[in-house]
């Protein structure tokens, strides 16, 4: 596969599935700088993975797998903030945040951030409607294990939602 | 907000993404990444195979020239052949070791759990090579032997027979090489062991009910 072909496929994937990268970066990065670094790292890994994609799964599933692998392996000590951006102003941002934020989404991400790293992955996949089978294949866990964890996550979210009713969300 | 409303809020991200992306900046980052990969590959090939082989070849050629000037004999030819054979074996062992590790890494699947196992395998491999100073010394032995041989040849050619100078030079070489190797190995362990610990914890989290 030539570089041009890889870049073309990568740009198509990012255009169609950039929401996946945003969600994972938002869930695993605690500050905006961390999210930028993690987004950049995930994008790089997705780019690397283009040549290895054989079409055995949907592109969204593949990208989720790469993104979650990257997020779990990512460490703040390996921050690359600014790496590869020598030709741009140091303050140029890779991610541009919208002026208004949905408080409901902020609440959801706060709850996700309280989960451990593995359950955080499951929460993201559950919210995006993946089947237990898909989750099992992405994470390498047994389906029953996935089911038990998902039920716990749902129960915890439902309990917190009930508690937050008075906040007017 | 109830559970269904929460799911609706979540799905709204697909229509209204959380962020915008600076496309030009992302493309630039990728170009730098491609350049970095090519540079790292060239560096790896250059230092591991070319420099090591050239150093071993220069040492062997120097020894051959020295012995030829003094008159080659059967034991000298045997010593030369042994040195050449050892150098070839070293190159072969290094190549085989890396190839086996590549094959081992390809056997892992692409799930998250398998990816963690693959990374663990890679770290264990690096620890086996550089994590113990005795192993690091073994892998750098041909370069160490070549340096020692060149120093000895220089002293022989210049007719330096001072025992204390010879012993002092040898002691300096041994101590500096051992200290450098020990320090390199300690630094590598400091970097690799925490990463190994984190991966092991991740694997345990994945395997726990």
Structure write-up:
Chain A: One of its GO terms (biological process) is DNA-templated transcription initiation. Chain A: This is RNA polymerase sigma factor. The complex is a heterodimer of chains A (169) and B (209). Chain A has seven helices and one strand. With 169 residues, chain A is mostly helical. Chain A folds into two domains: 1-97, Rna Polymerase Sigma Factor, Chain: A (Orthogonal Bundle); 99-169, Arc Repressor Mutant, subunit A, CATH 1.10.10.10. Chain A is globular, with a radius of gyration of 17 Å. The relative contact order of chain A is 0.11. The model of chain A has no long low-confidence stretch (mean pLDDT 83). With 209 residues, chain B is mostly helical. Chain B has one domain (20-207). Chain B has seven helices and one strand, in the order αβαααααα. Chain B has helices at 3-15, 23-70, 74-106, 112-131, 133-139, 141-157, 163-207; one strand spanning 20-21. In chain B, α2 packs antiparallel against α3, α4 runs antiparallel to α7 and α6 (141-157) runs antiparallel to α7 (163-207). The two termini of chain B are 30 Å apart. The model of chain B has no long low-confidence stretch (mean pLDDT 74).
């Amino acid at each position: 596969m030539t570089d041009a072909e890889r870049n073309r496929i990568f740009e198509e994937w990012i255009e169609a599935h950039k929401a996946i990268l945003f969600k994972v970066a938002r869930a695993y990065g605690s500050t905006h700088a961390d999210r930028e670094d993690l987004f950049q790292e995930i994008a790089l890994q997705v780019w690397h993975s283009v040549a290895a994609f054989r079409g055995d799964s949907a592109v969204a599933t593949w990208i989720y797998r790469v993104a979650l692998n990257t997020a779990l392996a990512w460490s703040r000590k390996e921050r690359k903030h600014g790496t590869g951006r020598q030709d741009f102003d140091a303050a140029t941002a890779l991610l541009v945040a919208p002026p208004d934020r949905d408080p409901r989404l902020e609440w959801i991400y706060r709850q996700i951030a309280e989960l451990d790293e593995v359950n955080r992955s499951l929460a993201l996949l559950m919210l995006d409607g993946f089947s237990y089978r898909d989750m099992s294949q992405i994470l390498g866990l047994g389906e029953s294990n996935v089911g038990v964890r998902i039920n716990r996550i749902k129960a915890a979210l439902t309990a917190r939602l009930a508690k937050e009713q008075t906040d007017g969300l | 907000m109830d559970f269904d409303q929460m799911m609706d809020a979540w799905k709204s991200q697909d229509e209204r993404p959380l962020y915008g992306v600076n496309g030009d900046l992302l493309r630039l980052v990728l170009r730098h990444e491609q350049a970095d990969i090519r540079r790292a590959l060239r560096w790896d090939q250059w230092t591991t195979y070319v420099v090591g082989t050239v150093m071993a070849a220069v040492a062997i050629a120097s020894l051959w020239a020295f012995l030829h000037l003094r008159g080659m004999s059967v034991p000298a030819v045997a010593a030369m052949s042994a040195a050449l054979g050892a150098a070839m074996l070293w190159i072969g062992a290094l190549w085989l070791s890396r190839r086996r590790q590549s094959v081992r890494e390809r056997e892992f699947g692409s799930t998250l759990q398998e990816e963690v196992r693959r990374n663990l395998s890679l770290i264990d491999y690096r620890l086996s090579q550089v994590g113990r100073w005795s192993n690091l010394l073994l892998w750098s032995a041909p370069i160490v032997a070549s340096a020692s041989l060149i120093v000895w040849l220089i002293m022989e050619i210049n007719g330096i027979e001072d025992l204390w100078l010879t012993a002092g030079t040898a002691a300096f070489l041994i101590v500096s090489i051992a200290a450098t190797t020990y320090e390199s190995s300690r630094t590598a362990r400091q970097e690799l062991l925490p990463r190994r610990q984190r991966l092991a914890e991740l694997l345990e989290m994945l395997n726990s009910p």
